[in-house]
Amino acid sequence: MRAIPKPTYAPNAAFDACVCDTKDGLLRSKLTEIAPEMLDVLGFYVAHAGQATLHTVPPSAHNDAERVIRQVTKGELKDLYDKQMIPRRKTARAIYDNLRAAAPGGICPTCGFGHVETIDHFLPKSSYPWFSVLPENLIPSCRSCNTGKSAVIADDSQYFHPYYDIGPLMHEQWLYADILFTNPISIWYEVRPPSGWTDAQKLRAKNHFRDYNLRSRFGVQAAAELSLLIPQFSDPPMDIHEIRDALDRKLRAARRYETNSWRIALYEALGNSVTFCSLGFPY
After folding, report:
1. Could you tell me which residues are beta bridge partners of residue 119?
2. Where are the chain's structural domains?
3. Tens digits of per-residue pLDDT, 207-223?
4. CB neighbour class for 129 (10 Å; exposed up to 12, middle 13-18, buried from 19)
5. Which pTM does this prediction carry?
């Protein structure tokens, strides 16, 4: 999990691009009329995101045919993304592609290991149509992260936002792992927030970990890594100091780029285990 730079488009850039490609003249006129309100929407979103209060924004209770801004309906706002931003050869598609390419190395910032394949609406467009094409609400994502969370955000269920949560994602460790000496060895990941965090920050970490199913998904990654490490350390057998040195080098390399990842938690747990580093388990 990692923070990534916020989009730097001019206000209403994505919305204006979508509107200019709208072929229906009446709809284009209705959308043009709400441009000032869409500027307000941007300011509203940025203010709440900066204060970590997006989860307090009430979702839309309208059906798709009902008006939500002047004469524009909920369905028409949602359709801007599907009909004007995703299709190739549309003007706004360039913004979509740039947002997707913004994740360093093409790695999903939400989980920290999946390959970016799509865009995730941080606040789902089905419940928050005003943000359907707002770049600040569009996160490069792997398919598992995009489809894994609910389309409805409960009052207590905000996750970490890759554009706004630089501190907890990049500077403060809250993800840890324990070794289970089963046969084969398995890894149990846990959220252990810093003691100085507020209750709200601790809850967000737990929500992020739980709702993106990261314990299970990280466990699969760890199992694959262990299947490579154990033969490396045991054939021929390395001594405890050699194993710890190898793990420490891997840990330092991983920490150059992030603070909370399945790799960091894994290498840290393995390096702290006398049983593992002395090969005192069946392998």
Report:
1. 140
2. 13-151, 172-277
3. 999 999 999 999 999 99
4. buried
5. 0.93
